[in-house]
Amino acid sequence: MTEKNYQAWEVKESDYPLEGSTEDRLKFLLHYAILAPSGPNTQPWKFAISTNTISIYADLSRSLPFVDPSNRTLFMSVGCAIANLMVAGRHFGFKPRISFFPRGLESELVAEAKFERNEAPPEEEDDLFPQITRRYTIKHKFDDKPVDPAILEDLSSCLGPGFHLIYMTKNQEKEEMASLVTRAHHIQLADRNFRHNLGVWLRSNRTSDFDGMPLYTFGVPDWVAMAFPAVFREFDLSEAVIHRDSGLIRGCSAMAVLASDRDDRQAWTECGLMLERLFLRATSYDVRLSFFSQPIGLPELRQELALKLKQSFPQLLFGLGYSTPVKHTPRRPLDEVLIAQ
Predict the structure, then answer these.
(1) Which of 111, 135, 159 corresponds to the end of one domain?
(2) What span, in angstroms and rounded, lies between the C-alpha atoms of 126 and 340?
(3) What pTM value is reported for the model?
(4) Domains: count for the chain
(5) C-alpha dihedral, 237 to 238 to 240 to 246, nearest 10°
(6) Do strands 202-203 and 213-214 pair parallel, antiparallel, or not at all (unpaired)?
(7) Sign of CA dihedral 259, 182, 330, 199
(8) Where are the beta strands (DSSP E) in 277-334?
(9) Do 44 and 178 reside in the same domain of the chain?
């Protein structure tokens, strides 16, 4: 029997309430929205349903003040959930229309999604819906197999105006990114507040929690994972983390930076939406992603990366490649993130 904190992944397309009310059908779509990635699996979203509209909120109670002080990653995570919601909506015959920050950028109301019936179903090759439950993030090891450049080019098509994807496939380029990530780890993991803020989201491999990062995703064995979160919070383990991440970066087929022309809450949200579409498209090719955004969390290293790539605002740094499957991470039940309109 699947543990309760993993049951969200068992959602079945055949359970869609075709004869139910519009609100019933929209609620079903949210079962796929909550399967979106978030850093570090904080799942910082809330939803409200009213007739044919879903309101998507940022749950700022799940912010990480020392790890993500601007909430940049938090709003990107909400954008990922919106992407899943739109993909699921199109799959089940809706035409979703998104309005970002209808009450202004300072509001926790990130978007309103209005769902109208769409008589034309999505083309099969454009339907990313089957990839939602297949997607997972890699944190332990890539296989030694290159990604076809044609696939990388196709992934770039997931971006809209004002967003840019820059690939680095040469060994020297990957070494430079490994060096940048190493410098970021030395700075951040020397900070006790940073370690404590991140460490409370680390989980043992047999966790019963509905959020956070079980350490099996990092390849940590059960016996080490039991004590690791507490040890991580109290001691600077940067050398071990650097060893793992440097190996991942050198072993990936390509490194990539997702950058934007703007740097505000809406840009971060849209960046997350495009990232998840890219992530799902990559999953359709069995290509997996691993994230290394530590340098982007430090203004001086982010600026260094921006100057190197001639991009205004780097938002994400990640590797792409093939890997053996890994178990999904826990998810909060839908009723926990549904609120009254």
Answers:
(1) 135
(2) 34
(3) 0.96
(4) 2
(5) 160
(6) parallel
(7) negative
(8) 288-291, 313-321
(9) no
